[in-house]
From TrEMBL:
Descriptive protein name: ATP-binding cassette domain-containing protein
Family membership: Belongs to the ABC transporter superfamily.
Gene3D superfamilies (UniProt xref): P-loop containing nucleotide triphosphate hydrolases
GO MF terms held by the record: ATP binding; ATP hydrolysis activity
PROSITE patterns: ABC_TRANSPORTER_1 (PS00211), ABC_TRANSPORTER_2 (PS50893)
Signal sequence extent: none
Length: 249
């Protein structure tokens, strides 16, 4: 059951262009509270551009974005306080220890001292990396770095976690463990998740799915609904995107 109140994320009529090249066209989508929503799209569909607008790396010039009812443009502090982000590119400082990476991020959110350390220990325990707290980040594997980035994104206890293709480049076991952890956050802690991917095997039948193609939302609903009329979600996705990726030559 969806908790009362505003959706975790509401994107309304958002468009964005790089120069004359449109990357998002009139995008409207909703991420309900306490649910796993997959943002599915091929390379160049516009997923990273959307994340850049949600996280305020870019200004939204057309349309509006709200996090738990707080407009990102007008109430950025309130909106970003409720948002945790895992970017596609690696963002740990490799020369700092795992713990210092987390403490630095906590400080950015105004959390310091013992409280910061206690939270950092708790989130590292959750991703089973507390034993590596003193190691420099560069000593971790790719999958472990991702888990630390997820832990870091949760330090300030956000209600919405957005992850941009978090499992790309990882082996099967790491992918599975990261996905399991994130699904657990949804089920047991009520965190809302927006998970951008082009990997269909990461999606369960009951997940909410938004298919983005060439900067437009071309389907949205439960995975089962999106797959209706096709043999499965894979076939439905192929049909929806059969004219190829946006950055194809
Ligand atoms: N900084 C930029 N300058 C110009 N064009 C860009 C820039 N970033 C993205 N684009 C273009 O905008 C479109 C959407 O790209 P975006 O990176 O948002 O897609 P994506 O779905 O995240 O793709 P991928 O899965 O490859 O990361 C593409 O056509 C891309 O070439």
């Amino acid at each position: 059951m969806t908790p009362p109140g505003p959706p975790a994320l509401m994107v309304e009529k958002v468009s964005h262009s790089y120069g004359s090249r449109p990357a998002l066209r009139d995008v409207t989508l909703t991420v309900p509270q306490s649910r796993f929503t997959a943002l599915l799209g091929l390379n160049g569909a516009g997923k990273t551009t959307l994340f850049s607008l949600v996280t305020r790396l870019f200004h939204t010039r057309q349309g509006s974005i709200q996090v738990l009812g707080h407009p990102v443009a007008r109430e950025p502090g309130e909106a970003l306080r409720r948002l945790g982000v895992v970017f596609q590119a690696r963002t740990l400082d490799l020369d700092l220890s795992v713990m210092d990476n987390l403490l630095y991020h906590a400080a950015l959110h105004g959390i310091g001292g013992r409280e910061a350390r206690a939270r950092a220990e708790a989130v590292l325990r959750d991703v089973e990396l507390l034993v590596r707290a003193r190691d420099r980040a560069r000593l971790l594997s790719g999958g472990q770095m991702r888990r630390v980035e997820i832990a870091r994104a949760l330090l300030h206890a956000p209600r919405l976690l957005v992850l941009d293709e978090p499992t790309v480049g990882l082996d099967v076991a790491s992918r599975r463990s990261i996905l399991r952890h994130v699904r657990d956050l949804v089920q047991n802690r009520g965190v809302a998740v927006l998970w951008a991917t082009h990997l269909l095997d990461e999606i369960d039948p009951g997940d909410a799915v938004v298919v983005l193609h060439r900067g437009r939302v071309v389907a949205a609903g439960e995975a089962g609904e999106v797959a209706a009329g096709a043999t499965d979600l894979r076939e439905a996705f192929m049909r929806l995107t059969c004219d190829g990726q946006d950055d194809a030559p």
